[in-house]
Amino acid sequence: MTRSPGAFQSITFAAWHDRPPGQDRASTRHYVTLAELLVRLGSSGLGLTWKVRIDGAHLVTRFAEIEKASSGAGIGTLELLALVAPDLQFVDGDFAGYVDDELKVVLREFDSTSWDLCTADTSVLREFRRHYPDAVPTPEDVLQEIPWPTSRRRIRI
């Protein structure tokens, strides 16, 4: 496996955010779920096929089912969304979206505290920065630790 392609950019943002004022909710905090992020991808995410790796998946039946569904040729965005919606929370997980054999986007949850988004699509980066204004460039030392495959043929999940 190799690191993300050179044209990719990566941002990191908090997984927990304050709710906007005026929302009638018991909690003032909101957890950003994978389902929310898949929706944020908009039309650019609809044609993706996902490969999923969730740390400790064998310990949680739903996590194991998601990994299994994404094995082989992968799983479509709408099918993945159906498996994770509305509020499934992971601790550590890597979600790599492909068109054919070309990696287009990676969503990575770290320790239920932050998300990384990696893509070459500047419109997706702008959309995520607009919705998650705390987003900052992912630190280089973090990027060096993440083995993002550039081809589904080379992925070992």
Provide a compact summary of the structure.
The chain has six helices and nine strands.
Q: What would you say this structure looks like, in words?
A:
The structure is a single chain. By secondary structure, this protein is of the alpha+beta class. Helix content is 29%, strand content 28%. It has a seven-stranded antiparallel beta sheet. Strands 2-3 form a two-stranded antiparallel ribbon. A hairpin with a 2-residue loop joins β6 and β7. α1 runs antiparallel to α4 (77-84). The longest helix has 10 residues, at 61-70. The chain starts with 8 loop residues before the first strand and ends in a 12-residue tail after the last helix. The relative contact order is 0.27. The model is unreliable at 150-157 (pLDDT under 50).
Write the layout of secondary structure elements.
Blueprint lengths: L8 E6 L1 E3 L10 E3 L2 H7 L2 H4 L2 E6 L6 H10 L4 E2 H8 L8 E7 L2 E9 L3 E6 L2 H10 L4 E2 L2 H6 L12
Antiparallel strand pairs: 1-8, 1-9, 2-3, 4-5, 4-6, 6-7, 7-8
Helix pairs in contact: 1-4
**Strand/helix succession:** EEEHHEHEHEEEHEH
Task: Give Rg in angstroms.
Answer: 15 Å
How far is the first residue's CA from the last residue's CA? 11 Å
Q: Uncertain regions: pLDDT < 50 for 5+ in a row?
A: 150-157
Structural class: alpha+beta
Tell me the strand order in the biggest sheet: 5-4-6-7-8-1-9
The protein's oligomeric status is single chain
Q: Give the overall form.
A: globular
Q: What fraction strand?
A: 25-35%
| Number of DSSP E strands | 9
Helical residues, percent: 25-40%
Number of helices: 6
Largest sheet: 7 strands, antiparallel
Mean of all residue-level pLDDT scores: 86
